[in-house]
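Hi F.,

I've been meaning to write this up properly since the lab meeting, where we talked about keeping a consistent format for the predictions we share between groups. The idea is simple: the sequence comes first, exactly as it goes in, then the structure tokens exactly as they come out, then a line or two of notes. No screenshots and no reformatting. I'm using this chain as the first example so we have something concrete to point to.
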Amino acid sequence: MRNTKSKLFFSILYPSLFILAIWGIKLFELAQNISLFTFGLFPRTFHGLLGIITSPLLHSDFNHLIANSPSLIILGAVILYFYRPIAFQIFFWVYLMTGVWVWALARDAYHIGASGIIYGFVTFLFFSGVFRKDSRLLSLSLFVVFLYGSTLWGVLPLKSGMSWESHLLGALAGTLTAYYFRKEGPVSQKYDLGEEEENEKIDVTGFGESFESQDKNPEDS
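Output, unedited:
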């Protein structure tokens, strides 16, 4: 029981620290009456390279930030809880691939926001269960579909001010990460009539919005 509580605590802690960081940046902007969107990701420019790292930390306004925060905590905690041995590698590759691909392929505008990461987490959790063919993780995949199935529309250019490229490329990054790590992390549970094995029960709890701009206005993700 203590190990389970400790595992749950740290699964929530790290996503919460990330949320505190992006909220701290927005509060700093408010206190200084400035906007840091120029530190966002502007595709195919030298100064835009920094945005590969900084763009998920920046949000256009508090509505954008509030929309992304719950999903970052929920999905981050789920990945840390069920994929603990490879959780930080998952975060790194989804974060990096999404940023690099948006820099290389997206429209000329500042892209900001963490929605690309959220789409990456959603597709990772879904396809990881599919690729592994594990009944426990397939249940988790269905749970993700139930919660986030409607976000599929976010990969299409349907809404002005939305960085749909971040959504689409983040989703692709999550899918490829799920495939790459399909043989690492949690393993299928096997049962032996001659031995008792401890089996963890799945306790699942648990997106965001993205914006776009034209010319050099920030596109949120």
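Notes:
The first helix runs from residue 2 to 32.
The domain at 2-185+205-220 is CATH 1.20.1540.10 (Rhomboid-like fold).

If this format works for you, I'll send the rest the same way.

G.
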